[in-house]
């Protein structure tokens, strides 16, 4: 589901290099070099609802990790498309197959989406193995990267007294879990902590920075040579593309339900 400010298939070359590096005991620097990272200006498709359209002519797709299959990922890889695995890292979802694995005491207030409740991200001891299993799923299906959603609970009414320090600690654990599996990882929203997290994440995913006048806050990623994958829901491209193109963002208009429709800059 899109978040609005409530704010083994054939492996690609980089994955094969990473596997070889790990097997040979290559230093972390070599494994880091092998990991895929999207560059500023990279075109992309983001689809989380409806029948998956695998034909969009872009080099990057972002799709649901649970709903998508290894065959979907392999089909995209066959076209030299990199694939990002969407998972929710900040809220519990009652419709996921692992919903029963989350202890009730970790579930907070609803986040505005049916069947979802904020997670107590202070409980890293419990959440780390649960998120590790989700990232294992992404890796095993052949994904290149992960988009962990809702990494800004501390800015919302979660039912827990979350602090900025709590969020930093949790977000860094999320990045570590992805990197341990050879996956690149995107920072979803959480603009206030970009200066502190830009080195931990490989790209950013943002919703509605143009509507809220926040796009300039994403430039640390661009300056670091890392893509900012950006969408707007309410604004037409003519209103935001001049600004976001000049900033180096990878921007498009999307429907709120993130179906296959897109209108890129």
How are helices and strands ordered from N to C? HHEEHEEEEHEHEHEHEHEE
Overall body shape:
globular
Output mean pLDDT: 91
- Under CATH, the topology is which? TIM Barrel
> How many distinct helices?
8
Beta-strand content: 15-25%
* Cα Rg: 17 Å
Query: What is the spatial order of strands in the main beta sheet?
Result: 1-2-3-7-8-9-10-11-12
| Quaternary organisation | single chain
Count of domains = 1
Structural class: alpha/beta
Description:
- By secondary structure, this protein is of the alpha/beta class.
- The chain has one domain (13-264): TIM Barrel.
- The chain contains 8 helices and 12 strands.
- The strands form 2 sheets. It has a 9-stranded mixed sheet.
- The longest helix is centred in the middle third of the chain and has 17 residues, at 124-140.
């Amino acid at each position: 589901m899109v978040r609005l400010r409530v704010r083994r298939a054939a492996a690609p070359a980089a994955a094969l290099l990473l596997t070889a590096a790990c097997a040979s005991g290559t230093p972390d620097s070599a494994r880091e070099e092998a990991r895929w990272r999207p560059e500023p200006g990279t075109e992309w498709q983001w689809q989380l609802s409806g029948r998956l359209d695998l034909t969009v002519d872009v080099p990057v797709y972002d799709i649901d990790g649970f709903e998508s299959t290894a065959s979907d990922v392999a089909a995209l890889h066959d076209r030299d498309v990199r694939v990002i695995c969407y998972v929710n890292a900040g809220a519990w979802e009652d419709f996921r197959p692992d919903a029963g694995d989350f202890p009730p005491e970790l579930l907070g207030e609803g986040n505005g989406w049916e069947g979802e409740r904020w997670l107590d991200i202070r409980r890293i001891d419990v959440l780390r193995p649960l998120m590790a299993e989700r990232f294992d799923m992404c890796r095993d299906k052949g994904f290149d990267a992960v988009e962990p959603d809702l990494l800004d609970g501390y800015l919302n009414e979660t039912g827990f007294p979350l602090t900025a320090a709590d969020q930093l600690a949790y977000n860094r654990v999320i990045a570590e879990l992805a990197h341990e599996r050879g996956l690149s990882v995107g920072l979803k929203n959480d603009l206030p902590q970009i200066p502190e997290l830009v080195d931990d994440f490989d790209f950013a995913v943002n919703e509605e920075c143009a509507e809220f006048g926040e796009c300039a806050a994403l430039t640390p990623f661009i300056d670091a040579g890392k893509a900012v994958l950006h969408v707007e829901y309410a604004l037409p491209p003519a209103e935001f593309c001049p600004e976001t193109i000049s900033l180096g963002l990878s921007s498009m208009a999307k429907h709120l339900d993130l179906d296959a429709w897109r209108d890129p800059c």
